[in-house]
Amino acid sequence: MGLGVCLSVAPAAxxxxxxxxxxQYGPELEEFVYPYPVAQYTFSSQQQSLHMAYxxxxxxNPNGRTAVLLHGKNFCAATWQQTIVQLVxxxxxxxxxxxxxxxxxxxxxxxxxxxxxxxxxxxxxxxSIGVSNxxxxxxxxxxxxxxxxxxxxxxxxxxLVLVDPIGLEDWKAKGVPSLSVDQWYARELATTxxxxxxxxxxxxxxxxxxxxxxKWVQMLAGMYRGAGKQAVAWNSALLYDMIYTQPVxxxxxxxxxxxxLMIGAKDNTAIGKxxxxxxxxKQLGHYPELGKAAANAIPHAHLIMFSELGHSPQIQDPTxxxxxxxxxxxxxx
Length: 333
Hints:
The protein has 333 residues and is an alpha/beta fold. It has one domain (3-329): Rossmann fold. Helices cover 39% and strands 14% of the residues. The chain is built from 13 helices and eight strands. The protein has an eight-stranded mixed β-sheet, with helices on both faces. Helix 5 links the parallel strand 5 and strand 6 (159-163). It is globular. The protein starts with a helix and ends with a helix. InterPro entries: AB_hydrolase_1 (IPR000073), AB_hydrolase_fold (IPR029058), AB_hydrolase_sf (IPR050266), Epox_hydrolase-like (IPR000639).
């Protein structure tokens, strides 16, 4: 049994120290086993050959619809595991990719990262496997990507579900100072399981920590312990620069597909917040207000607020989250 298999099935009682001693991954999350088979979409982009990992899960009783799950910045396709189960049981075909620069996909050392490029990559992947007009469910940074995809391909997007999307405010305009890619890189090289766990506790889970969250900490930390740490950190730095410099908030009014926002009211995510002056920090990441403003800006948007949840409601309270998700995905009667 490999390390990835151990990680997939290890009991919650296994302590963080045991995880740390056992887990080390390469730059493409080698040895970490995903909950469903992983395929690779190989393509040429920016004069280089890249591959994009994805899971493509088919239901026993299909409803004729496909859901595409877009992960966040510190997440992977695997973190959608519980959501995939629920959607497949409801009859959806589910496609969950790892974007370029993340997880099991390529880590190019020279790449012009943009949400447009990631949307094109995703669209081409979906076209290659016969998926058109999907429901896009984007979490965190995946929410920014889902918005860009829907703006680029409005006739090929059935519905948009944004789960605690970042990009509901323009951090640069609000006074968060710019960091160079080199500064982001130095910051990312300092990543440890402790820094990951502390950040996730405060932001993703509203200050509450449970043992079952540990495997997602170790999924990320394992890549920073491995021989490919520099490649992982460099791609992460490029991606943070993309997120900071490419706001989508000004284009919400142009979204032309049915949209639902699912917001954890205790989320306080803001990119670069730690580098901002204290008075600026206080103005950032107020998700109850940001969610309402986004719902007002997006035509005919529907807002679902989880009053006690943080940035990752699908992990923190999967029962409540999936009940609400399936309701919003139900066909209009």
